[in-house]
Design goal:
By secondary structure, this protein is mainly α. The protein is built from 3 helices and no strands.
């Protein structure tokens, strides 16, 4: 029996989601939809990876 290969894109996407929600939960500016300087790259990375994952999923259908 072989181990299932890790889906790197999915793992990175979920890590970015976790990082984004963790940052937002502790940042008043980001909670008010006003991205702070520290949060901007975190949220941008999540958005890029989400777009990439969704695009790949739509191609597989």
């Amino acid at each position: 029996m072989t181990a299932r290969q890790t889906d790197d894109l999915y793992v990175r996407y979920m890590k970015a989601f976790s990082d984004s929600t963790e940052h937002t939960s502790g940042c008043a500016a980001c909670q008010a939809d006003q991205r702070c300087g520290a949060g901007e790259p975190v949220h941008e990375r999540f958005a890029r990876l989400q777009d990439a994952y969704n695009a790949r999923q739509s191609k597989q259908r």
